[in-house]
Amino acid sequence: MKFLSTALLALQAAAIAVTATSITYTPCGDSQDGHAFRITSMTLTDGLDRKSWFVTIFGSVNKPVEEGSINIYLQRKDTGTGVYLKYDLCDALSSMRLSCPAPQGSRIAFMRRIEAGDIEPGEYTMSLFGSTGHDISKYDGQTVVPETVFCVNGDVKFSSLRL
Question: Distance of CA 64 to CAs 35, 38, 128, 132, 145, Å?
């Protein structure tokens, strides 16, 4: 009986899980070369638990940055409501065994986890940017702030899984 109730709970959890079905992205700003980080690609993968995703950006360091944050702004296309996620830049660098500031020419791969509870199914515009000294809560999804060290814009669709 306990096995059956556990199996039913697992099925219910799977029925409400959310997955990302697509992602497109473009570097933003006047010149990626002018930023501290040059971004070469961005990927979004489902977590093994089917309750989260991992946004990963790959690139290299153009010029050292001593502090800052990696910020994700997800804005629903139909309602315009936004979700902000923030990750410390030096923590991300240290997870790759890089010092802060990272030396010029270093290869980088930042990963940020998005929890399913933070996202409702729908189509979103995703802005992912690194900044120093910027209050992400004032970010409008459009303006590239002066302290930007890298910037990537993308579109992503999150949809519910059905059994």
Answer: 10, 12, 19, 12, 18
The domain total for the chain is 1
In this structure, are residues 101 and 153 in contact, taking their beta carbons and an 8 Å threshold? no
Q: To which residue do tokens 């059994």 refer?
A: 163
Alpha-carbon gap, residue 122 to 42, rounded angstroms: 20
- pLDDT per residue over 77-125, tens digit each? 899 888 777 777 777 777 777 777 777 888 877 777 777 777 777 888 8
- Looking up residue 41, the CATH number of its domain turns out to be 2.60.40.770
Q: Which residues constitute the domain of residue 93?
A: 2-160
- pTM score: 0.61
